[in-house]
Amino acid sequence: MLTGVNASDGIGIGKAVVAIEPDLTYKATAHNDPEAERARYQKALDDFCARTQEQADRMAVTVGEEEAQIMAGHIMMAQDPFMMEEVGNRIDSGMGAEQAVDEACEMFSGMFESMEDALMRERAADVKDIRLGLLANLLGKQVVDLSSLQKDSIVVIHDLTPSMTATIDKDHVVGIITETGGRTSHSAIIARALEIPAVLSVENALQKITQGDTCVVDGTKGEITLNPDATALKGYQKIADEVAEAKAALNVFKGKETVTGDGEKRLLVANIGTPEEAINAAEHDAEGVGLFRSEFLFMDASELPSENEQFVAYQKVALRMKDKPVIIRTLDVGGDKEIPYLGLTKEENPFMGNRAVRYCLINADKYKVQLRALLRASAFGDVKIMVPLVTCVEEIRAVKKLVEECKEELRAEGTDFNENIEVGTMMETPAASLIADDLAAECDFFSIGTNDLIGYTMCVDRGNDSVAYLYSVYNPAVLRSIQRIIKAGNDANIMVGMCGEAAADPLLIPLLISFGLDEFSVSAPSILRTRKIISEWKKADADKLAAEIMELKTAAEVKAKLASVVK
Ligand code: PEP
Ligand code: MG
User: How far apart are the two ends of the chain, measured CA to CA in Å?
Assistant: First the structure.
């Protein structure tokens, strides 16, 4: 089995198409006919622009307007007078068109790469894409074209550039495997937008996978199985079919309100990691964002994103969600989330160390950059601030004090923001659970982070396989903790949500309804299924079940009982 980054959910089964990029080497010989070389360059440029426009048009339909804009941007960049002049001057000095294009593109991508602004640095990848297209045209080679693949193809490629993605026919490509890229890379974002299962950053995938290999791409787990035997293949196919059938059946819940069996409204929102995922969330009918893990912005950068870069990202989500609530969690660094340039010192036990809100309060200057960006974005939608890993009242008070300082600064500058922005606490530590009533008095909402709450309550590192048997939300200790947090929030009349994975657990949903959870925040593909299960439970039935469950003594008993009543 091969493993990589689980970048786009689902199981895809098909035959590997190993896409090898064309050899674009050329001979850099001197030329003495600049006219002819200029004409070759102009023709290559015209062909490139025509082909790119076709791709952009196709992409607008298959992927989305925003992604199509990336392609249209390539045309503008390639035809930029400055770029054309750089190529032309080189041709006039005696270079062949290939070398002139190559050197000019190299110069521009180097220029972009050295820029301060992260968004500008990303343009370097676009220039490299243009270089590839122009050189291929000049050399009469085909760039990788993914538009005419056989049905059930799994694309295996070193890196998926935006222009290649544009050509993907999503009816024929059932999986994507790359050797580079993380969850927030272009390839990941577009794979998710296309809903094609994808596993990225698979080491030496091009060597390990052979053309025509049968591949099972599990984009949820980040695993690839090569050439499974007939029995295993049948098993995977069954799972994939069941997933597809169940998904199709859920469409009747699209556009519906999220209500319990007796008509009580619940809020059903999405967990996202990048601004682009907000599009996917909206398409899956999210009623807002319950958790934007802002640390992905920081993990994808090589230095602290500026206030403006952060503002643009938060504003994007706010605008996409219109007036729906958008909860943005402030930097949750440390533990399993490393951000090298922040210079965190190595600790014996990083999960218990200087992380999340602790790091942010010690580094208040850096934290204020994020808080200011969040406040500025709050002028464009219903943005709320959420603080991770809170263990005591002092922390939430200290954050609120910094928020007030930032508001004061913005007021003085005449910058708009929402004066009544809500500040909430992520409830993911046993300490927070024990003082939930005091925390409820200090903040505007709770969101229960079961992923960590389970770990810290059971003293289990969430990534440690040898103690994974203890990592279960069905442990009575965890259930009681969840129940008391919800009760404290309800008693104080603040909204209580859940953004840990447990919010989408079909077995747990009746208990959460009984406990009084107001908001369920789940991954986009889980939205409709969660809406369906919520609709199946009346409060009185959920209460009856919860009363029985809360008498049980072991996680196994709890799970077995829930499994016996929940479909
Ligand atoms: C959680 O801990 O439940 C949570 C949602 O946050 P993360 O998984 O990012 O730690
Ligand atoms: Mg957490």
Answer: 32
Query: Is 186 marked active-site?
Result: yes
Mutational test site, ligand 1, from 271, 297, 332, 452, max ligand atoms within 8 Å of CB: 452
Residues 295 and 339: beta-carbon distance below 8 Å: yes
Longest dimension (CA), the chain: 90
CA distance 53 to 47: 10
Helix, strand, coil tally for the chain in percent (to 5): 55, 15, 30
Q: Where are the beta strands (DSSP E) in 304-379?
A: 325-329
Distance 143 CA to ligand 1 centre (A): 41
Cα(501) to ligand 1 centroid in Å equals 8
d(CA 55, CA 241): 31
Pocket of ligand 1 (CB under 6 A): 291, 293, 332, 428, 449-452, 499-500
Among candidates 213, 195, 170, which has minimal Cα distance to 2?
Answer: 213
Give the tokens for residue 8. 């786009």
Atom of ligand 1 nearest to the CA of 502: 3
Q: What angle, 0 to 180 degrees and rounded to 10, lies between the N-to-C axes of helices 118-139 and 307-320?
A: 80
74 catalytically annotated: no
Q: How far is the CA of 534 from the centre of ligand 1 (A)?
A: 22
| Index of the ligand 1 atom closest to the CA of residue 448 | 3
The protein residue with its alpha carbon nearest to ligand 1, atom 9, reads: 293
Overall pTM > 0.85: no
Per-residue pLDDT tens digits of the chain, which is 567 residues long: 999 988 888 899 999 999 877 788 898 888 889 999 999 999 999 999 998 888 788 777 766 777 778 778 889 999 999 999 999 999 999 999 999 999 999 999 888 888 877 667 778 878 888 998 899 889 888 777 777 788 999 999 988 876 676 677 878 999 999 998 776 566 776 787 678 999 998 999 999 999 899 999 999 889 999 999 999 999 999 998 988 888 889 999 999 999 999 999 999 999 988 888 898 899 899 999 999 999 888 887 788 999 999 999 999 999 999 999 999 999 999 887 778 888 888 888 989 999 999 999 999 999 999 999 999 999 999 999 999 999 999 999 999 999 999 999 999 999 999 999 999 999 999 999 999 999 999 999 999 999 999 999 999 987 677 888 999 999 999 999 999 999 999 999 999 999 998 999 999 999 999 999 999 999 888 899 999 999 999 999 999 999 999 999 999 999 999 999 987
Which residues make Cβ contacts (< 8 Å) with residue 486, sequence separation at least 6? Answer: 448, 496, 512, 515, 516, 517
Cβ-proximal residues to 417 (8 Å cutoff; 6+ apart), any chain: 375, 376, 378, 379, 407, 410
Residue nearest to atom 1 of ligand 1 (CA): 449
Is 481 in contact with 453 (CB distance < 8 Å)? yes
CA-CA-CA-CA torsion for 225, 193, 509, 489, nearest 10 degrees?
130
Residue 190 and residue 178: Cα distance in Å, rounded? 13
User: Probe ligand 1: pick from 272, 293, 508, max atoms within 8 Å of CB?
Assistant: 293
Report how far apart, in Å, the C-alpha atoms of 117 and of each of 318, 331, 389 are: 22, 20, 30
